[in-house]
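Notebook, p. 212. Picked up where the previous page left off. The plan for this session was modest: take the two constructs that came back from the sequencing core last week, fold each one, and keep the raw output in the notebook itself so nobody has to go hunting through shared drives later. Recording the first one now, exactly as returned: residue sequence, then the structure token string.
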Amino acid sequence: MLFSFFFYFLKYIMANQYISKIIQRITENTNTTTNLGIIIASPSEDPPYKYHWIRDSALVMRTIVDMYDKTKDPIYFQSILNYIENESKLQKLDTITGLGEPKYNINCTAFNGDWGRPQNDGPALRGIILFKLIDILYYKYETIISELIVPIIVKDLEYILSNYRKISFDIWEEKKGWHFYTRMVQAKFIKEALRYKKLLENIVDIELLKNSYQAILSDLKDHLNGNSIISSFDKEGKIIKYEDAANILAFCHIDYDKEILKVIPLENINHTCDNLIESFRKKYNNEELNLIGRYINDKYYNGHIWIICSLALGQIYIELYKNRNIVKYDSPMHRSRSNPNNNYIEIANQILERILTLDPNLILPEQFNPNTSEFISAKKLTWNYSELYQLYKLLN
């Protein structure tokens, strides 16, 4: 009994230490400018990541919002207010593609240089996190909701409704076309808007929301091919890419919405997971490796292991394990001496442990080489900490 008490006490202490480090790394990449609410993607200027990305910042805010929900600490509440006020300012800027702009300068001005634009996942991700905020703040901060949050959501909805049938760049900012990830988060955003239709009914056309939601679900079906997911098509409908970690991230970032998963079954992600794992095992000549990069034959910095992709893999395996009575699938990729029973939770734990041991202070890069432990590309990528928080929370 005494041993059990100390074991759980030690686990509690370790959990607090890791969470504190995660929050510290996020905070360091937030408090870098006089413009409160700006979250830089990374302090790196080579590659040029010292910008505020709409996508990345929305995903990072998942951690801040969750910490506020758990603790009600006013520090997190202030961070939330700063984010809301900043996003409202950015929406009003005169930009090349309107709300389809992927990133902004850290002085809260438009970035008008060459880049892959538009990126139509950003407004949807921002809307998703704002609806999570409404869930938390409802009945207590109605003025904040009505005067600050809802106007941002409405603008994002208007943009998505006007542009979901137009091509855009993928989350890797490389390919222009139709993307599984983009459509998944757009579907989730509109579904959340329908859940709050009473809040929006005098501002937004609810019938248009319903029709658009069904249209995006129908479009998503085009990405299913047997038991696999087509990640992207070009504008003519030609397949650009099949196996892509963006497919995994898509399920994570819609919180495995049960209604959407009736149309896009969760088990389809196994094909992506297996093929990516097989490819990266061959790349590093390591049959025990359970880490992945973005996609097969990635050329960006020679396509090494991406931390966000590997952490998303861990998250998806936990979800598959939780639904093992529904999802009838047993991947052959993970049977090994260290995991003879193909336990998905054990795989997720191995991924988490590998990432946590990369650096004692969690100074985590965008990519790394698992054979040499060399850090590659951008340093201290803020998005890393969002995915790390999600996986750590699920396993502790």
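Okay, moving on. Second construct, recorded in the same format:
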Amino acid sequence: MNNYVEGDNIPLGFGLTLAQNPEAMAVFAGLTVPQQLAVIEGTHQIRSKQEMHAYVQKLAQNGFMAL
């Protein structure tokens, strides 16, 4: 089983943005592996730094169900 909290297979842009947002990091770390995979899958549609920051902020503020 992959440990996505430790950074295995996390897209670089998502990982860097997540590292800048402790609240989002805590939410992500608390997710199940299938939920983490779903969050990561959602990053594949993101095309700019601004979109990535908004995605991570939404995760921090509203949790997994908001994505």
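Notes on construct two before I forget. The chain has four helices and no strands.
Flagging for discussion at group meeting.
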